[in-house]
Design brief:
heterodimer; A: mainly alpha; Sodium/glucose cotransporter; B: mainly alpha
């Protein structure tokens, strides 16, 4: 067999094994809504770790991070910067959130808003925003899947076909396995992805330069400006770095899927302990950046930076190894997309469709609507991925700016008794409008600051002021 | 919910100071440490040091939770 055939065979084998594992993992559990969405709330330290870590090592970090190291240089450091900080934020908000979730039997992020602020409409609004923000994130996974197959087949299989096939598989996978199946596939994918990352991160600089140190020395001679901010960009300097790191650190656990993942834990303490150790899981991240930086010297002039890691692997290693790396990446895209689909579909069915259109629906019927929504969302994302050309990082920053607007409502909701439904509603709406306006009119960064963080600051202010002006609520968590 | 203790919040602010607010101080190539430009070295170092800070915060919060449970008289 020639090398594209070998690579593709390995990729599809890995995807098939992953899917089978997902189907098997569900077989011992009766699949009601609670089991499908939050795994019966019985995950211990290891499984929560894997589920959460699995969601952090996504196609975005795998291809997007090396892609930005290649195309932008210094500004990519924001990824190393925010990773430990988002766990610091999670340390403070996830344990109390879990406690509330257990007491009120919450399954989704919108459930939290609905229960805390006593407003079905607010819950529906949060669900809507969450689903909309998930779409660009889903699109990242799809685009990644397409890139992997395209590179591995040396252009022989078109990206569009790969995306459609891959997503049919993901949708089927979510349909049958639910969150428990996804968690177990995530184990396989993490092992594969981490070992690939370590291996290529060490091997590629060693093969071409004799090590990581010599690689950097050469880069300092050839392109010293690439290694510090703003790198190859004009406007991604220190002010952008600080505001972007803050936005992602606050906003990360506002992604509805990560937010809801905390409900799968067995106890709040599991989450607290997780938050302490999780930054250690990111230590392989610099290695992925080194691959992108090596590509600056070895493969200059790539049309798409997101290709740099795969193109380096293809240039350096035999076909079966490209297949292994591609398979790890494809499985990652699948697992991440599966979680996102599961979350988006449940949000839609439980917090938008039922309360607004069919209040008398039973949980079984909700689960059915959610499964139909899995198909609708995945086909929508496929269409978008085919027609859009944004880079992986740009898509990620767009969605992040949106979900970060939940942060004031969550933090005030957990720790303050004075915040009101109107305050949260107003703050969130204004925040989302400001973020949308700045980003869609090409004003991100705005005067060197991350547009999403500007929106978040305004959101906080509006939430506080409107809460002061409206009557104090009687609710609040003790 | 009871907000976290001040000690834990202060410990949580340490990584924010190191990784985020001080960027102008460490975003430089020199001095090179362990073959890495200083900015890459610094951020990698804080992937390892953040758990140390948060382990301290963990001890504080767990101790506080234990005391609160004792105050309420139940061993739940």
């Amino acid at each position: 067999m020639n090398s594209p055939a070998v690579a593709l065979t390995v990729i599809f084998l890995i995807m098939a094994v992953g899917s089978i594992l997902g189907f098997l993992a569900r077989s011992h559990h009766k699949m009601d809504l609670e089991q499908w969405t939050v795994g019966g709330r019985g995950f211990g330290l290891v499984l929560v770790w894997l589920l959460m870590a699995g969601e952090i090592y996504t196609t975005f970090t795998f291809l997007g991070a090396s892609g930005w190291a290649y195309s932008r240089g210094g500004p990519v450091l924001y990824i190393l910067g925010y990773q430990p900080l988002m766990y610091v934020v999670s340390f403070f908000i996830l344990p109390p959130l879990w406690e509330v979730g257990r007491r009120l039997r919450l399954q989704t992020q919108a459930d939290f808003f609905q229960a805390r602020y006593g407003s079905t409409l607010l819950g529906a609004f949060v669900a809507l925003v969450g689903v909309v923000c998930l779409i660009p994130y889903l699109q990242i996974q799809l685009t990644g899947l397409g890139l992997i197959v395209e590179v591995a087949s040396f252009g022989g299989i078109h990206r569009t076909l790969a995306m459609i096939l891959g997503f049919a598989l993901v949708a089927a996978f979510v349909f049958v396995s639910g969150v428990r199946g996804v968690a177990w596939v995530s184990v396989v994918k993490d092992l594969l992805l981490l070992s690939c990352a370590v291996f290529i991160g060490v091997a590629i600089p060693r093969i071409y330069f004799g090590g990581i140190g010599p690689m950097f020395r050469m880069l300092m001679q050839v392109k010293p400006s690439h290694l510090v901010m703003p790198g190859a960009t004009k406007d991604l300097g220190h002010a952008w770095y600080v505001t972007t790191v803050l936005l992602i650190s606050f906003g990360f656990y506002m992604w509805p899927q990560y937010f809801a993942a905390s409900f799968t834990a067995r106890s709040g303490r599991v989450l607290r302990r997780n938050a302490v150790v999780m930054p250690l899981y990111s230590v392989t991240m610099p290695l992925l950046l080194f691959v992108g930086l090596s590509a600056v010297l070895i493969l200059p002039g790539l049309s798409n930076g997101d290709l740099s890691l795969l193109a380096m692997v293809r240039k350096t290693f035999p076909g079966w190894f490209l297949g292994l790396v591609g398979g790890a990446g494809a499985l990652t895209a699948m697992v991440t997309a599966a979680i996102q689909l599961l979350t988006g579909a449940t949000l839609y069915a439980k917090n938008l469709f039922r309360p607004l259109l069919a209040p008398s629906m039973t949980d079984q019927q909700v689960a059915k609507v959610a499964k139909i929504m899995v198909l609708a969302l995945s086909s929508g994302a496929v269409l978008l991925a085919i027609y859009s050309s944004l880079s992986l990082v740009s898509l990620y920053l767009l969605g992040s700016a949106g979900v970060a607007q939940f942060f004031p409502g969550v933090v005030f909701g957990l720790f303050s008794r004075r915040v009101t439904t109107y305050g949260v509603f107003a703050g969130m709406a204004v925040g989302i409008l400001v973020a949308l306006f700045l980003m869609l009119s090409g004003r991100d960064p705005y005067h060197g600051l991350n547009a999403g963080l500007i929106a978040l600051a305004i959101n906080f202010a509006v939430t506080a002021v409107v809460s002061k002006l409206t009557p104090a609520p009687t609710m609040g968590f003790d | 919910m009871k907000p976290p203790s001040l000690g834990a919040i202060l410990l949580g602010l340490v990584p924010f100071a190191a990784n985020c607010f001080s960027v102008a101080l460490w975003d430089r190539v020199y001095p090179i440490v362990l073959g890495l430009p200083f900015n890459f070295f610094w951020l990698t170092l804080w992937l390892l040091l953040t758990p140390v800070c948060m382990w301290g915060a963990y001890r504080l919060e767990e101790a506080r939770d234990r005391n609160r449970r004792l105050d309420q008289g139940g061993g739940r």
